[in-house]
Amino acid sequence: MFLHSTESDLWLPPLASTSVLKPVPNGEASLVEGATAGWFDASRPGRALVTSIRPPCHAAVSAGQYPQRSCAPADRFTVTIIVTS
């Protein structure tokens, strides 16, 4: 997943809401300026939200997740991923 913005308002690294998706490192991709990326592997069937926020939103990370509604819509990104067997 790639999120694009300017260098002054970069997205924070995307976080998955459940263990359905596990973050994995990716040393193969080089990001252009203004891009934030996240790579995930599906670990089991289920549903997960992947969320990122960017300034000016200063929401705290709680239990490894960004809050869903405390940032303006333009400053948050959320996608639902459904993994089937």
Structure report:
The structure is a single chain. By secondary structure, the chain is mainly β. The chain is built from no helices and 7 strands. It has one domain (2-83). The strands form 3 sheets. Strands 2-6-7 form a 3-stranded antiparallel sheet, with no helix packed on it. A two-stranded antiparallel sheet has the order 1-4. Strands 3-5 form a two-stranded antiparallel sheet. The model has no long low-confidence stretch (mean pLDDT 82).
Task: Summarize the helices and strands and which ones pair or pack.
Layout: E1 2-4, E2 15-16, E3 21-23, E4 35-37, E5 40-42, E6 46-53, E7 76-83
Antiparallel strand pairs: 1-4, 2-6, 3-5, 6-7
In summary, what is this structure?
This protein is mainly β and 85 residues long.
